Every structure is written in structure tokens, then in C-alpha cells.
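It would be a great kindness if you could assist me with a short task in structural biology. Thank you for your consideration; the sequence and its C-alpha cells are set out here.
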Amino acid sequence: MNYNVVVVDDDDIILFLHRKILQSVALSEESKSFNSAQKFLDYIASIKGDTRPVLLFLDVNMPVMDGWGLLDVIHEEGFCHPIEVIMVTSSVDQEDKDKAAQYAKIVNFVEKPFSKSILANLNIDFD
């Protein structure tokens, strides 16, 4: 499957690192990265004609709108862009993992920062 790959995290160093890792494993030469949930939502609005699903690597803890708030928007009835979410967090709290299981669009939950080996274990088809 051919995805629009997007990383949303409020930490610019993590954004840079994750973008480089995605490029190094040839998952995405053109991944997008945003340091806020609102910038991601603006991006989604700008690609309405693009039918490729979004693969979103989403941080949990961010200011203004955190990852949970963005997930609530993504799961609203009016949000119609195809999307799969991988939660990327420094949290090792079981409550976060349990909460993530309640969102149908979350396909995985990984610790930050992700690595080449973590991506390889996700078994994502980028063809």
C-alpha cells in the first residue's frame, strides 16, 4: 500500500530523527512532519483529493492539542480521510496502552524514539 507518511511531534529533534530514520529504511522519501496537531489537520484539509491513506506516527504528549485530542478528531464521523496511526511515545504507562486500544485507527504503539528495527517489526507494506 502506498501511504502518505506523516510524523506529528512537538519536539523538533524527534521530528528530524524520525524523518531521517524513515528515509534510511526507504519507507518514505517524502514524509511530512508537523510540530502540532493543528498543522497536521491543516495538511489533511489540503490533500482532500489524494486518496492514499495516511500513516501517522503520533506523539501522545503535546501542548494545546495532545495526541489523544487529535485521535478524538480523527475518530469523529466527519473525518473521512483514510488513516492508520502508530502512537509514538516516551510513556511506558499501561494506562496509555489500554487507552490506545480503544481507538480503532491505532495499529501500533511504540516507544520514542523509534528505530529501524522497530519499523521493521511493524510489518508495514509500503509498496
About this structure: Residues 49 and 81 are 10 Å apart (CA to CA).
